[in-house]
Amino acid sequence: MKKRGKRKQEIGKVISDKMDKTRIVLIERITMHPLYKKVLKKYTKVKVHDEKNKSKVGDRVKIAETRPLSKEKHWRLVEIMKGG
Q1: Number of folded domains in the chain?
Q2: What pLDDT was estimated at residue 2?
Q3: How far apart are CA 36 and CA 51, in angstroms?
Q4: Among 6, 12, 60, 69, whose CB has the most other CB atoms within 10 angstroms?
Q5: What's the pLDDT at 17?
Q6: Residue 1 located in a structural domain
Q7: In 3-state terms, what secondary structure has residue 42?
């Protein structure tokens, strides 16, 4: 049996629920500018697989990396942490 590495998990906010079984989640990262030392917010939008269409716009969700499910969908919904 092969041993898998630990898969990435992120927390983000659902910003779109218009597709069937797919949500768009906004992940926010806080980084420091290397030269000017200013705190910056960087955002990433990812497509997430939501099998039961439970999450809605505004929900905070925990997502995990998974095998490619479609051309752009490489994440799946783990849990809905807080409603919007």
Answers
A1: 1
A2: 65
A3: 44
A4: 12
A5: 95
A6: no
A7: strand
Q: Is there a contact between 62 and 9 (Cβ–Cβ < 8 Å)?
A: yes
- Distances from the Cα of 60 to the Cα of 41, 65, 71, 74, 82, angstroms: 18, 17, 24, 18, 5
- 40: domain CATH number is 2.40.50.140
Q: Which two tokens stand for residue 67?
A: 């095998």
- Give tens-digit pLDDT for 18-62: 999 999 999 999 999 999 999 999 999 999 999 999 999 999 999
Report the chain's terminal Cα–Cα distance, integer Å: 41
76 in Cβ contact with 47 (< 8 Å): no
